[in-house]
Amino acid sequence: MTDGFYKSERNFLDFIVDGQSLGEKARYDLVSVLCGEWAPEERERSVRRLLKEEPANFSDDRRSLLVCAECGGIDCGAVSVVVQLSDTTALWRDFGYQNDYEPDIRGEHLRNLGPFEFDLSEYRTKLIQALEMIKAPL
Fold first, then answer.
1. Mind listing the pLDDT tens digit for each residue in 54-86?
2. Alpha-carbon dihedral of residues 124, 129, 132, 137, nearest 10 degrees?
3. Is 118 helix (H, G, I), strand (E, B) or coil?
4. Range 18-24 contact pairs with CB under 8 angstroms and sequence separation of 24 or more
5. Cα distance between residue 100 and residue 112, in whole Å
6. Domains of the chain: which residue ranges?
7. DSSP assignment letter at 137
8. Bridge partner residues of 32 (DSSP)
9. First and final CA of the chain: distance in angstroms?
């Protein structure tokens, strides 16, 4: 415990887009949903949410990318995004900071983040590879 707050070590894969860390750009004390300390089922659900194979975990079809570094929960606050899939692309748009008990989306500085468009096949491959990578022993 440091200064009244728990600071546990976390091993996670960050989302790097156009050579930049989304975690750093978000400027919150959060980790990606691809965290080695989270239950494997939750990491898999997170990837399925980003692939739109599982329902969003926020209203308005928003999906978490970065979550609480201590518990992985969205109730503490998370960076979320709208994911749109077409036949050939995946698009991340409308970044925001929110929790699961307040309706407002905050994080004015996140409004200038994105949108980011990815080749759909590469998007799927990278997410599955990341999931496999985080399963491997450190």
1. 999 998 899 999 998 888 889 889 999 999 999
2. -150
3. strand
4. 18/116, 22/65, 22/66, 22/79, 22/113, 23/66
5. 23
6. 16-135
7. -
8. 66
9. 24
For 6-34, how does the pLDDT look when each residue is reduced to its tens digit (9 = 90+)? 566 777 888 999 898 998 888 888 999 99
Side chain identity, residue 114:
G
* pTM of the full structure: 0.87
Q: What stretch of H or E contains 44?
A: helix 40-50
Rounded Cα gap, residues 87 and 66, in angstroms: 26
Reading the block at residue 12, the tokens are 């996670």
Sign of the Cα torsion 121, 124, 128, 130 reads positive
